[in-house]
């Protein structure tokens, strides 16, 4: 395998690793209607996250409907990735969400299950 091909195959994973290394605390007030009850996760090494789960409500979920992920960084970080890089990252986020959620729930096809819980990443 030539060096050019080898470097080309490493470009996307390295870009994703760079994104993970730069992740920070989610900004409040722009996405959720309420941040009440969110707890800081203690199991994260390079990033921080807030989460909340309702085990009783999750037990009621049989299927999830996935919405396409949206690229929505802080205003100061909007122009550092090309449109192609943004598309690659969004595709990987969607694939990982689908994989992880399919381990626990049925994945509803678009328009197929009106009773499915809706999942989206931003």
Note the topology.
Blueprint: H1 3-21, E1 39-40, E2 50-51, H2 55-60, E3 63-66, H3 83-102, E4 106-107, E5 117-119
Parallel strand pairs: 3-4, 3-5
Antiparallel strand pairs: 1-2
Task: Explain this structure.
With 122 residues, the chain is α/β, with parallel strands linked by helices. The protein has helices at residues 3-21, 55-60, 83-102; strands at residues 39-40, 50-51, 63-66, 106-107, 117-119. It has a 3-stranded parallel β-sheet with strand order 4-3-5, with helices on one face. Helix 3 links the parallel strand 3 (63-66) and strand 4. The N and C termini lie far apart (37 Å).
Sum this structure up briefly.
The chain is of the alpha/beta class and 122 residues long. 37% of the residues lie in helices and 11% in strands.
